[in-house]
Amino acid sequence: MRRASARGDRPCSTRSKTNGASPPAPKPVATQRIDFALSGHGSVYLFQPLTPAARVWVAEHLPPDATWFGGAVVVEHRYIGPIIGGAIGDGLVVR
Length: 95
What we know:
single chain; Translation Initiation Factor Eif1
């Protein structure tokens, strides 16, 4: 779209002019740290700490006799909601 310039003698473009070079690359999006990986559905879930902060959280908030499987804590479905809520409430990221 073109409009008349303030001087009224020539129309000017509303688009910005470029020198023909490629547009600048977009700024990188900050990556989000994931502290826990959550997997499973139904009766049991695997709650895997991935960062040192997550491992400390597990040591402080889950019972010492919790069942571990493949580097993850095995959690019954009735307990997973409050556990995830507690981790997120303490600033950790669960995915």
